[in-house]
């Protein structure tokens, strides 16, 4: 079973599906949708098989495959996943079919080809899987860059208001980050022994200054991608303009490449530079939490609001990573998964509201719960999950992050906690202004607002709600998988990533 | 005088050049002897056959490493590789030159001497068949380029420079549409090119004064051992470099490029962007790596400054362009900067990565100009960018292909542009030229913007009233376009064979 080329098949399958869908006749949009959905479900089933075949207590990297690519540079098609990458692959595979289902009518209104829209979604899935599955720096970079192309067209061709501006901004920001990383990748190759193999590079030694420059090259790319303050300004534009499904993938998965990259590349490859940079990283993560949350409170556009909330959440993930304890790191990775589920759900629900109302402005809603009670209920649930209410999955991860950080860095943990209060403010206020209170009379005249959740929409939200609750009460299946990988990662950076609680230290 | 004898010539080694010059001379005879009606097809077949034969000769002697013709010509790895590249790219450009299905009579004017705008001119623009002298002219130019990259002394190099430049000046002036622009471009190119040649010749004189000879081997020895004033040497290098950098379109000697690229008939622009660049950098590589490598410490910072300036000028000015041909011209200037980064690595990797870059860029740029020839309306090619708005809606296939080409220029992975950029940056960093790489990365960011603007224009804007549709390409344009696009993709996905080829070829004989 372990000889089966799981990862290359998983990476390639959506791409094949994308090609098939793209060449379906434009006049048969329904066929294209069904093929795309069916294909993504097969991919999801395949990812679940991967999950089952993965041995949580086994080697750190599993399903290793390696094929010659460019011998002159030692660049190879090397795939391998650790626990962190595995859960991200599973998240992608689960989200994509739901996003396709949720986007069923997204492309209908545009004058553009419907099959191409779904082909782009599948192509995006392929590049996202590739970026998490790669265990070769060059291959990772290749996926990192081409990931931009389908997303660019998803935003630019099928987005809403200001889509051109948002698409170009998204592309340029990411490309700038990518080029910084290119310089660092070239440097890593030239100075690290002419190899791109992740495991060989682990043992490469660099001069202190060189290591810091290389670290920064990677970090800037990942910080833009994540996005961390102050590189975050592209996300509200992109998230606001993208179709709801693409936006869910954008913040749910695509941005995780940033934090994943920090965990996989910045920390183990440049441990000294990581320790040196940690205080700055913690600072910008903290600023991000507070600053983005404050901006989120003031937003009147639902999609932009949700984008800002996720910038704040990425601050928590950043803190969890740079606290350098296994507990906080596990919390951060768990947060990456849970944020994908919760914010993905939030974006999809907001998308359902926007599709009904034809506007994403908070002020165009008001009392919508009276017309569409079930939909409003789901929004409320997604909001609660997003603010990390106990019982929902994000709570576990946020708690782990703060607990793990508190042990080594109390002030940071305390300030970050303030972000939780702000989170309550922006979420509850958003829910209140859109669904509670007196009914906005304009809503009654909108046809779409009379229909509550359709069966299709129920199928979209139900699995996400179930997963959020399940992982809220029983996160063990996920933490078991990510814990060893996080521990190994943190071990690369600091000697003792599992500090004993302060109380026992004080005991005689 | 008894022992004066002709130098031994390895005819097989110089056969590619002899074939091209011979076929070009035959082409002149065809012009004189055959009736007008059959000239075009005879010329085209003759030219294509000549190029194919020359390419076969290059391939047949791929293992040859010798000096011949009394040391005037060096046939070695880089020579053969670059000659092969010039011939292949020339073949593609010639397919564009020969296509007449897009416009009645082709892209070239029938009689260049008729006054622009006169009645006779309007008549010939509408009805006449294009000139057929262009085929021998193009072959002379390509033959000169082959000699240029093989030249092993400065005088041979100068002769080759003139042989390939003069036909190009003429070819620039022969556009069927916008003839004034075309003639102005040719005049500009000729005048500035003549200055550049003069600088080059003066540089030869200074170097002769320093080294006592013009052969690269002699110069190489002199740089190591001569106790003469280095003023002569550095003055000579500077003046030679001006001549070569002019042809390569490096700043501050780039000013002709946008005007000439815009004014020349588009197939000729493609020829210049691909083949001239290969020839110019081939010669630059040989001069720096073979003759002056001993003085590398002294000229690297200055040429590095020129590389940085070239990348900056190309990238910054490309942002403001509104004409697609001018945009591609500035992009070609910026690419000259990236090529210089590879050249200045001054190592085997630098040599092989530069050669890879030349080939990768050449295929892509010819494909780009092939697309430019296709987007047209009643007045010929629609090169103003505003006219390209919404092209993706009108002709998704061609807009898609052009998008792919632009992504290659921007260096997105899975295109040859990315691999090429990675190769030159890697070579430069390996040689400790990190500052060049940093500027390369910064300018790449700037340069992404104009490309992206075209993509936005094509896909995200609504088609306007004046958006032309894309003409269905004739067989030859389609062939050139497909070769270029496939090469861009293949060199991006599976570059290993060409990388190996350049690595094996990367050794000069001295």
UniProtKB/TrEMBL annotation, chain A:
GO terms for molecular function: NADH dehydrogenase (ubiquinone) activity; NADH dehydrogenase activity; ubiquinone binding. It is found in: Endomembrane system; Membrane. The keyword Transmembrane applies. Keywords: Membrane, Transmembrane, Transmembrane helix. The chain crosses the membrane at residues 6-24, 36-54, 77-102, 114-132, 138-158, 170-192, 212-235, 247-265, 277-298, 305-326, 332-355, 367-391, 411-431, 459-475. Belongs to the complex I subunit 4 family. NCBIfam families: NDH_I_M, PRK05846.1-4. This is NADH-quinone oxidoreductase subunit M. The lineage of its organism: Bacteria, Bacillati, Actinomycetota, Actinomycetes, Micromonosporales.
From TrEMBL, chain B:
Residues 151-446 form the NADH:quinone oxidoreductase/Mrp antiporter transmembrane domain. The chain crosses the membrane at residues 12-34, 41-60, 80-98, 132-151, 157-175, 187-211, 231-256, 268-289, 301-320, 327-348, 354-375, 396-414, 434-460, 472-494. It comes from the Bacteria. It is a multi-pass membrane protein. Keywords: Cell membrane, Membrane, NAD, Quinone, Translocase, Transmembrane, Transmembrane helix, Transport. InterPro entries: NADH-Q_OxRdtase_suN/2, ND/Mrp_TM. Its EC number is 7.1.1.-. GO terms for biological process: ATP synthesis coupled electron transport. One of its GO terms (cellular component) is endomembrane system. It is an enzyme of class 7 (translocase). GO terms for molecular function: NADH dehydrogenase (quinone) (non-electrogenic) activity; NADH dehydrogenase (ubiquinone) activity; quinone binding. It catalyses: a quinone + NADH + 5 H(+)(in) = a quinol + NAD(+) + 4 H(+)(out). It is found in: Cell membrane; Endomembrane system; Membrane. NDH-1 shuttles electrons from NADH, via FMN and iron-sulfur (Fe-S) centers, to quinones in the respiratory chain. The immediate electron acceptor for the enzyme in this species is believed to be a menaquinone. Couples the redox reaction to proton translocation (for every two electrons transferred, four hydrogen ions are translocated across the cytoplasmic membrane), and thus conserves the redox energy in a proton gradient. Belongs to the complex I subunit 2 family. NDH-1 is composed of 14 different subunits. Subunits NuoA, H, J, K, L, M, N constitute the membrane sector of the complex. HAMAP family: NDH1_NuoN_1. This is NADH-quinone oxidoreductase subunit N. It comes from Phytohabitans rumicis.
């Amino acid at each position: 079973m372990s000889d089966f080329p799981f990862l290359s098949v998983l990476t390639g399958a959506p791409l094949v599906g994308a090609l098939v869908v793209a060449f379906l006749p434009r006049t048969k949009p329904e066929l294209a949708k069904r093929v795309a959905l069916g294909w993504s479900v097969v991919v999801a089933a395949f990812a679940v098989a991967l999950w089952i075949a993965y041995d949580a207590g086994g080697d750190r990297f599993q399903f290793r495959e390696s094929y010659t690519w460019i011998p002159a540079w030692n660049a190879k098609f090397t795939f391998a996943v650790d626990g962190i990458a595995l859960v991200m692959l599973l998240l992608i595979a689960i989200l994509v079919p739901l996003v396709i289902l949720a986007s069923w009518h997204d492309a209908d209104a545009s004058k553009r080809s419907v099959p191409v829209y779904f082909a782009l979604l599948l192509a995006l899935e392929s590049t996202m899987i590739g970026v998490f599955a790669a265990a070769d720096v060059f291959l990772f970079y290749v996926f990192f860059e081409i990931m931009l192309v389908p997303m660019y067209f998803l935003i630019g061709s099928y987005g809403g208001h200001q889509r051109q501006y948002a698409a170009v901004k998204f592309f340029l920001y990411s490309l700038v980050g990518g080029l910084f990383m290119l310089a660092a990748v070239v440097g890593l190759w030239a100075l690290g022994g002419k190899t791109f193999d992740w495991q060989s590079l682990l043992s490469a030694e660099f001069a202190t200054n060189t290591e810091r420059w290389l670290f920064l090259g990677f970090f800037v790319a990942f910080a833009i991608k994540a996005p961390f303050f102050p590189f975050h300004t592209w996300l509200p534009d992109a998230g606001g303009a993208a179709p709801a499904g693409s936006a869910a993938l954008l913040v749910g998965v695509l941005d995780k490449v940033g934090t994943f990259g920090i965990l996989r590349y910045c920390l183990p490859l440049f441990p000294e530079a990581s320790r040196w940079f940690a205080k700055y990283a913690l600072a910008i993560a903290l600023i991000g939490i507070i600053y983005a949350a404050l901006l989120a409170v003031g937003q009147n556009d639902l999609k932009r609001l949700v984008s800002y909330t996720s910038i704040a959440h990425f601050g928590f993930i950043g803190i969890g990573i740079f606290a350098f304890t296994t507990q906080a790191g596990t919390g951060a990775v768990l947060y990456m998964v849970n944020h994908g589920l919760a914010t993905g759900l939030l974006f999809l629900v907001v998308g359902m509201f926007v599709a009904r109302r034809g506007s994403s402005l908070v002020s165009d809603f008001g009392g919508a719960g009276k017309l569409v009670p079930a939909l409003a209920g789901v929004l409320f649930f997604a909001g609660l999950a997003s603010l990390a209410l106990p019982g929902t999955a994000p709570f576990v991860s946020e708690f782990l992050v703060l607990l793990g950080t508190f042990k080594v860095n109390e002030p940071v943990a305390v300030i970050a906690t303030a972000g939780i209060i702000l989170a309550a403010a922006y979420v509850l206020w958003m829910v209140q202004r859109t669904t509670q209170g007196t009914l906005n009379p304009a809503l009654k005249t909108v046809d779409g607002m009379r229909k509550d959740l359709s069966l299709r929409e129920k199928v979209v939200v139900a699995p996400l709600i179930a997963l959020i609750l399940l992982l809220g009460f029983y996160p063990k299946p996920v933490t078991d998988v990510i814990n060893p990988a996080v521990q190994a990662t943190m071990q690369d950076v600091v000697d003792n990533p599992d500090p004993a609680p302060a109380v026992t230290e004080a005991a005689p | 005088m008894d022992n004066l004898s002709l130098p031994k010539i390895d005819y097989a080694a110089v056969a590619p050049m002899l074939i091209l010059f011979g076929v070009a001379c035959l082409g002149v005879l065809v012009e004189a002897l055959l009736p007008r009606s059959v000239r075009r097809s005879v010329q085209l077949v003759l030219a294509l056959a000549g190029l194919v034969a020359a390419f076969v000769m290059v391939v047949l002697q791929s293992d040859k490493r010798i000096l011949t013709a009394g040391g005037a010509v060096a046939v070695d790895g880089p020579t053969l590789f670059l000659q092969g590249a010039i011939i292949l790219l020339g073949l593609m450009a010639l397919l564009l030159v020969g296509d007449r299905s897009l416009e009645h009579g082709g892209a070239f004017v029938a009689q260049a001497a008729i006054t622009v705008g006169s009645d006779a001119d309007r008549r010939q623009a509408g009805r006449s068949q294009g000139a057929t002298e262009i085929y021998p002219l193009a072959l002379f130019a390509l033959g000169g380029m082959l000699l240029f990259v093989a030249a092993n002394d400065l005088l041979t190099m100068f002769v080759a420079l003139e042989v390939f430049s003069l036909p190009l000046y003429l070819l620039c002036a022969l556009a069927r549409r916008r003839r004034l622009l075309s003639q102005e471009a040719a005049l500009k190119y000729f005048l500035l090119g003549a200055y550049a040649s003069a600088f080059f010749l003066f540089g030869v004189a200074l170097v002769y004064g320093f080294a006592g000879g013009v052969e690269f081997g002699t110069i190489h020895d002199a740089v190591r051992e001569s106790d003469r004033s280095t003023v002569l040497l550095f003055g000579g290098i500077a003046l030679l470099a001006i001549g070569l950098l002019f042809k390569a379109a490096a700043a501050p000697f780039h000013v002709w490029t946008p005007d000439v690229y815009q004014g020349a008939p588009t197939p000729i622009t493609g020829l210049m962007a691909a083949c001239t660049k290969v020839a110019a950098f081939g010669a630059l590589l040989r001069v720096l790596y073979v003759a002056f490598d001993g003085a590398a410490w002294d000229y690297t910072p200055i040429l590095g400054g020129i590389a940085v300036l070239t990348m900056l000028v190309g990238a910054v000015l490309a942002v403001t362009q509104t004409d697609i041909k001018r945009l591609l011209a500035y992009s070609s200037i910026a690419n000259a900067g990236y090529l210089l980064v590879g050249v200045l690595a001054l190592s085997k990797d630098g040599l092989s990565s530069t050669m890879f870059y030349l080939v990768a860029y050449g295929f892509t740029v010819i494909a780009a100009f092939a697309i430019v020839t296709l987007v047209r309306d009643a007045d010929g090619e629609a090169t103003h960018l505003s006219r390209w708005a919404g092209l993706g809606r009108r002709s998704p296939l061609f807009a898609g292909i052009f998008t792919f080409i632009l992504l290659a220029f921007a260096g997105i992975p899975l295109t040859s542009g990315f691999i090429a950029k990675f190769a030159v940056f890697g070579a430069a960093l390996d040689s400790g030229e990190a500052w060049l790489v940093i500027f390369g990365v910064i300018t790449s960011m700037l340069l992404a913007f104009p490309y992206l603007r075209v993509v936005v224009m094509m896909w995200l804007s609504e088609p306007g009233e004046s958006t032309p549709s894309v003409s269905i390409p004739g067989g030859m344009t389609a062939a050139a376009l497909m070769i270029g696009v496939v090469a861009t993709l293949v060199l991006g996905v599976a570059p290993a064979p060409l990388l190996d080829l350049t690595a094996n070829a990367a050794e000069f004989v001295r």
